[in-house]
Structures are given as structure tokens and as C-alpha cells.
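Loading example: each entry is read as two labelled lines plus one structure line.
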Amino acid sequence: MARMKFLCDAERCIECNGCVTACKQENNIPWGVNRRRVVTINDGVPGERSISVACMHCSDAPCMAVCPVDCFYRTDDGIVLHDKDLCIGCGYCFYACPFGAPQFPQLGAFGVRGKMDKCTFCAGGPEPNNSKVEYEKYGRNRLAEGKLPACAEMCSTKALLAGEANVLANIYRERVTVRGSSGDIWGWATAYGQPGAPGGRAPQPPQPGAQPAPGGGTKS
Amino acid sequence: MTGRTALRVLIAAAVGGFLLTLAGCGERPQVVDYKQGTYQGKPDTPAWKDKPWNGNREEWNVALDTRAQNQNEYKRIR
């Protein structure tokens, strides 16, 4: 059984917000709703880290546990989805979610709260696959087309990975092996491999007066 | 009003009340009968049920895993 997951490589994320834009465009998300966003820690300080966050499709999802109308379900592929026809927009799932994934569209100046909207792993919802009603309620069903979520496929540095958990783990393991580090240093060589390693950056001649960056890479 | 008429009225009221009570028992539930902890919404169709997979889950899995490898540039550049 497949277990679909997201994985964000903090060494590679450059906070470009390409994933956020791709998600918004692909699923026609209304203004004020962000299914995905980029969070930066120590912004502006050398060594800052950014990660792209959305619904993590938890194996034991707290949103599912607290929903008073039980509108959540988990697919065979481990994707947490919900039925908008049943959702009452109470907001309990928002309080329960540690990632702030559930979003609520608001109408008008006084904020009439709508039904919950969240990342669907580009898997649509409980409507016929790739139908108009599914697109309008939940966004595009890319999985039914044999495609992965738009955010991950559009990621320019391939920091955000999406797919079957074991496949992602192998990709990440290979990265860490090539880097020779799991994240205590940062820079190009950390993200893309040590000089001389397969896929690594070719050694650069030292520039006069330049300080060597940790890990043999160039600080960016 | 004679005693007989009063009795008739009493019986009619009793029968009416009984029918009214019976009608209340036949009332249909107007809210969803929630079962705690169970999904109450519409069933979803798996991604691999429709075209072009036509229910072939294995083929769909392979297609997605192959596509996932596009995220591994160490494989792409070899």
C-alpha cells in the first residue's frame, strides 16, 4: 500500500514561494486561502532555514479526530481528505492541526466563514474524478492523471518532494550520502554534494581574499 | 349534555389523542445519524479506478513512482 507524503529539504529551499504559486494556480484557490506557504526561521540571519508547509496528511490526523461531523477520511494511499458538503466550518480542525493547514474562506468585511479548505495532495475529493464539480470544490485531481502534486513538481531546487514515502526516503538518502552531511552546515555543497562526489560541484579555485565557506561550498 | 354524549366526546378525545401520539412516533429523523469516529460523507473513487488506469492499481503505482524519480536530479543527470 502506497503512503503518499511530502518532504521538504530545508538545505535546498530558497523561499521562492514557487510551490505556493503553483498550488494557487493549479487549484484555483481564492484570495485569502493558502493551502501551502513557506515558513522561514531566523529570516535574514546567516544560516536561515525555510520549509514549505501544507497539510502533512498525518497517519493519525488530529483534524480527523476532532471533527464533530466526521467529514474527514483517509484514502488507501494515506491522503487525508474531507467532504465539503458535510463540513460545517466550525474551525475545530484548525485548532487541532499543528501545521495550520485548514483554511477558511471569508466572505465580506464581517468575515462570514466558509467551509474548510486544505491541501488535497492534488487528489481532489469525494466527487467523480476529474469532474467539474470536483475541480470547483477541491481543485485539480492530478493523481488520477498519474501526476504528482503541482507544488513539488514545480519546485525549482527540488527542495519539496512528493510521492510514495519509500521512494522519497531513497531520494533523500541519496542526497544526504552525496552531501556527506545531514544539515549541520549550509551552502551549495551541502545542498548539492561535496566537490568530487557524484553530482557534486566541481572544485572552485580560491578567490584572493575570500574566506572558504563551510563544507567547501559558496555561501549564498 | 347527557351522560352518553359526554362519554362520546371523551372517547373521541381519547382516540384523537392516541392517534396524535402515534403520529409523533412515526416522525422521520431530520438530522444525520452520526456514528462517532466514522466518516459520514460521500464515498470517493480511487485515483486509479478511472481512465487511463481502468482499475489497474499496479500500473498507476509504477507511473507515479517513475514520475517521482524526476525529483532525483542525481538520476536525471546520469
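The first helix of chain A runs from residue 18 to 27.
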